[in-house]
Description:
The protein is mainly beta. The chain has one domain: Porin, CATH 2.40.160. Helix content is about 10%, strand content about 55%. The protein contains four helices and nine strands, in the order αααββββββββαβ. The chain has helices at about 1-15, 20, 25-30, 225; strands at about 40-60, 70-75, 75-90, 95-115, 125-145, 150-165, 185-195, 200-210, 230-240. The chain has an eight-stranded antiparallel beta barrel with strand order 1-3-4-5-6-7-8-9. The longest helix is centred in the first third of the chain and has 16 residues, at about 1-15. The chain is elongated, with a radius of gyration of 21 Å.
Amino acid sequence: MQHLLRRKITSIIIACSLLPFTGLSQLRSELNQPDHDNKPYHFGINLGFNKSHFSFTHHSSFLQQDSVLAIESINSTGLNLGWLVDIPLSDHFDVRTYPLDLTFSEKAFEYSLAYPDVPGGESKLTIKKVQSITMSLPVQIKFTSDRIDNMKVYTIAGVKFDYDLAANAGKNNGDELIKLNKFDYGIEGGIGFHLYFPYFVLTPELKVSWGLANLHSRNPLLKFSSNIDKINSRMISFSLTVE
């Protein structure tokens, strides 16, 4: 089901990404929606994709054992889906949030093993995947340039609070070799453009997020968990918002 949802959302993103190129003539003609920025609030639908990975530190026990030779965090691709609410504070500053913000991602660790358990499905290079379905509540301040014809440039900075619906720290399943906590918080920043069309505003945006909480629920009895100390989330995303 998640795979089908990803394919559907990806198709919508590709279709939306073609709109700026098919409508460039509209951006160069007369001023579109001249009163748009005077509204007391704006709503938008946000679709995007992300590249995410874990930033981690080795536990001190890593140097005292010989079964795990190396650990690497692997980048993976996911999807974002959100509902944007933007409230102007002045001509150049806005506050915005996402009452509904879902992120679908899959991160992974790659282990180089000296003595893999071949009957147990291990090999010299063993990958352990961690899937996430995260609900986020970001609060951002946006600084916007003056409008140039039918375009604006802006930057954002803010904080966010995450709840991972798929986190497994509370499960007792022995097969869950890497357990993660459900709650996270962090900071984010980015840059984007408002493109004013006759009937809507399209906003491409590039954003980077840094998780600050330690997500790792470490189990000292399991080799895939015991050799890792702290785990923090990292993500870069590109999205399109239609207002």
